[in-house]
Amino acid sequence: MSELGILFSFIPLSGLAFFRGEKPQAALLWCAVIVAVIANALLLYPHLQEPQWWLPYTTFLAVVLFDGAIKKKLKPLHIIAALFVGQALLTKDIASIIILLIFSDALFSAERISNLELESFLISLTSLLPTTIGVLLGLTDSELIYCVAASIVLRLSSWPFLNLAVYLEDNRDRFLTCMSLISIFVLWRTQSIQDSDLWAVIWMAMACILSIGARPVELLGFLSLGLFSISPVWGILGTSFWALSLYQGKNIYLLAILMAASGAFVAGDLPKTLIPEVAIALAALFGILFARTFVNLKEVKTNWVIEVVGVFIALTVGVSEFLLHPELEVSLDTASAVLSGSFVVFYVIGKILQKTKPRLFKPMKSMGRLALPRFKRVSARQSEVIEQAMSGKVTVISARFFNALDSEASIIVLLGILGLLLFGRLP
Amino acid sequence: MRIKFPIVLIGMLILFSASIALGEVSRVPWLVVCGLSFIGIFIFDTENAITKNIANSTLFLTVFGLVLKSILEPSVEYFWRDVAGAVFLIALGFEQNSESWDGHILLRSMLTPAVLFFILVMGQSLPALPAEATLICSLAGIFLLALLELFSMLRKQGDVQTTAFMSATRSATSSIVSLFYCATFLPNLIHEAPFINIQLLVPVMGVCLAMLGFFLRKSRERYILFCSGWSLFILWTALSFEQNRIFAGIGGAVAGAWSTVIVSRAPIRGNDLRYIFLKISGWGIPGSILFTFILLGLLPSTNMNLRIGSVIWLLGFFIYWSGLVGNADSDRSTPEQSWGWRQSIALALTIASTALLSEPGMLARAMSVWWGGGK
């Protein structure tokens, strides 16, 4: 069976056209789940001797089952969508991965399709557009990596468009955020990265820039990509974040520790790309920005059993990785120590200051997001304006675009990107 | 109505069987594609517009017969003659099914492009014309057929009242004509400059068409643009000269005709996901038969023109899909339809077709074996 064999699950789904009753529909949906599971199993079997393939898949499966057990009601459509992501985890071809992710996103948002509200589908497609264009143009190596990186930023960050996870999920349900973490891992692992040091810096810088308005989980995603760029083995260790990102109870503190640790590890790689003094200065800045994000994070009341299971999955991944790869070494640098130190110091200061100056730690909500185009909602008046503009009578300036640009956060982001480009040119 | 349905169906089957019996072996796959497209249109005609009156039934049967006959023709001149007849009847069908309208007749009447098509067909047979001019006439004719419906959009009122089956008939005719012509009669001149650049020109036209949607408010109007764009997409696959892409185009031609007739003007009933999905499947969203053929048609290629063309088409479809964001403005004057067996079959087909993507190579091989006798 090919990498896209899971698409056979659409055959039982087609039976939904003939039945309206709850029971027959459920039977068909579960049939589709079984087909998807078989497709996953057939693709997993050849990889049984390769832990770098089966370990992330097992972690993913644990996360899905864990989430399903907590919610006590497994929705078949969501399980099929998750199994599509699972199939993507076992797939090597980037074109197949794009197709699997599109279908997964479509299935996740299927329940939200009401009255032709298809914004979620458009968000998904927008995020995958750069990679799709890269594949269609036949780009390879670094050019394709840039395209994949653009897709990852669009999938994970909430800027310039709201990402699918934020669009679909409610505050307490982080399952989709977890899925977007997995999907970016899927996209990034297929790339044979040549400038791995540079990419580690880029992902870390991206995490810092977006820490202004992004959520901690999104930063974790970027940091895990940084880890993967340094070494795929470390990247697979980063998959332990998946289970911890599901529920934000007491384990947010564990997440903070892991984030500081992975940040420190990536910072240890900075001197390979940057001048040591610059690397240390940046590590300090990164520490402050990461601490700022975590200071603001509120703990959600959660059952301790849920916390323990999440930690158990993360620990199992970590221990398995160390057992399977005994050659793993932790090499830290001055920059690592500076990042960890500044993170801890500013986290403590932040917690104290938060009571008197809470505004300092609030994430910027108006990140100058661009709304997706809504060509359909052109009102009669707008049509007239466009017609006048076409005839040269009026000059139409897209107010939405400038609104997005003039916000403070957007200027910071643009400056950050400029800085990022300059970093790449430093010795 | 109950009597008309089997009568028209038997009529179609007789025409189809006769063409299979009379045709050469190499033409049989094309006849089957044509039969599948038109019989599909008839079966999925949820508005029952084909059997509504004798005029519609006769027009539909005659167009079907003419397209079948054009496939059987041995020479390109006879082929275009039959197609011109079909185009004229399609234009007549549009006028027959549209509501009263006003405006300048020359630009807004569907008969104008039909007359232009006749002129182009006659032009091709002039012995003094060089081969380049003949090819230009043929390509212009195909473009005109693909964009035929745009003329109806220029009307001041009653602009988009045409029933879905006429759009589907035009779509099927245009797709089959372009695919068959490119596979059978297209001269080698097309591989030389400047004609080879048509591989880029067609996607650019498709995107321009999609961008026209910026200025349209009714979803039905934008759907007309989508159907015209789909015909251009099929033409592009035919001009790719890559076997797998041409097979995708052939599948897309049948799927496009079916989808066009499935997307009726009836408003969506409540929150029934089946209605919603069936309605939007005609726009080629994931999980629909059109999406399957879009992916198969945009396969990566070694030809740079086709690679760029694929990206342009992707952007074009993205623009169409962007138009779906927001609330639907279905035509409220059309009565709601009840869910029937036709809708069930259409929905099941469109969802099940996604499985075709799982083994695209196998599909291409199967079609290749089937097409073995053809060109």
Question: What does this 3D model show about the protein?
Answer:
The complex is a heterodimer of chains A (427) and B (375). By secondary structure, chain A is an all-alpha fold. Chain A folds into three domains: 1-148 and 169-185, no CATH class; 193-367, no CATH class; 375-406, no CATH class. Chain A is 67% helix and 0% strand. The longest helix of chain A has 23 residues, at 22-44. Chain B has 375 residues and is mostly helical. Chain B has one domain. Chain B contains 16 helices and no strands. Chain B has helices spanning 4-22, 28-43, 54-72, 76-97, 105-108, 111-124, 131-146, 164-184, 198-212, 219-238, 243-262, 273-281, 289-297, 304-322, 341-352, 360-370. The N and C termini of chain B lie far apart (41 Å). Chains A and B meet through helix 1, helix 5, helix 6 and helix 18 of A and helix 12, helix 14 and helix 15 of B.
The number of domains of chain A: 3
In oligomeric terms, what are we looking at? heterodimer
Q: Unreliable segments of chain B (pLDDT under 50, ≥5 consecutive)?
A: 327-332
Largest sheet of chain A: none
Percent helix among the residues of chain B? 55-70%
**Element string of chain B (H = helix, E = strand):** HHHHHHHHHHHHHHHH
Mean pLDDT of chain A: 77
Tally of separate domains of chain B? 1
Rounded mean pLDDT score of chain B: 85
- Beta percentage of chain B is under 5%
Helix and strand content put the structural class of chain B at mainly alpha
Low-confidence parts of chain A lasting 5 or more residues at pLDDT below 50? Answer: 366-390, 392-408
- Percentage of residues in helical conformation of chain A: 55-70%
Q: What class, by secondary structure content of chain A?
A: mainly alpha
Largest sheet of chain B: none
Total number of helices of chain A: 20
- Note the run of SSEs of chain A as H and E: HHHHHHHHHHHHHHHHHHHH
